[in-house]
Design goal:
CATH architecture of the largest domain: 3-Layer(aba) Sandwich
Number of strands: 11
CATH topology of the largest domain: Chemotaxis protein chec
Largest sheet: 7 strands, antiparallel
Mean pLDDT: 81
Low-confidence stretches: 72-77, 142-146
Structural class: alpha+beta
CATH class of the largest domain: Alpha Beta
Amino acid sequence: MSITLTLQEAAAERLAQHLPASSLLAVTGIVPAEAAAPYASPAVTATFVGASTADFALLLVDNSFLAAAGGAVAGGPGFSAGDVLRPALEQAASAFDAGVLGELREEDAAGLLQDPQTVVFELSDSGAPFGWFAIRVRDNDAGPARSGQDSDMAARLGLISNVEMALTVEIGRTRMSVRDALALEPGKVIELDRSAGAPADVLLNGRLIAHGEVVVVDQDYAVRITRILDGAEGTF
């Protein structure tokens, strides 16, 4: 538990250092969840998946600073609190080492605050409450029974260790007749069934497993995962 709490404290410190506030924030310490409850809706939430799974919720006293940080008018076109806060939450997630931070959502965080496993840190600006950062860590290892299951799973995975799997990133699709396909030539523009800026699909052997956004890394195209889909959500 002490190791987990140390990671949570590190996550809160990193978040405070990278939030785009007008001044450097401080982590006051751990407070009862009731202190943050009045600001539970809306909160910005996200889930980090790695060696452990961590649920995050950022609750703010006043979110007017987000518009200035995002170069937009709060509530106006093109403004997203999640886009502005994502870099800071990614820094918080980095305390848990390798993993993926899922899609940021604006929603009610009351359920997370009511969980006894959730730890709430108060963030302050010159001594005044600025907001709260709630973290719930769900260890992926549930004990001896899970360890036995993991051993069995590892043995089974060994059977497919040399099986090649294709990871595909799809930015859109279209349907065309054979005549139109034969008429393709350099310079021809093909309109896809997806708007500009929409997330790309990440498929493993043809199965949809995640959504992401196309980025450029060292002049090469790459995809940054924004959401990992549940098994029921994936499609062939």
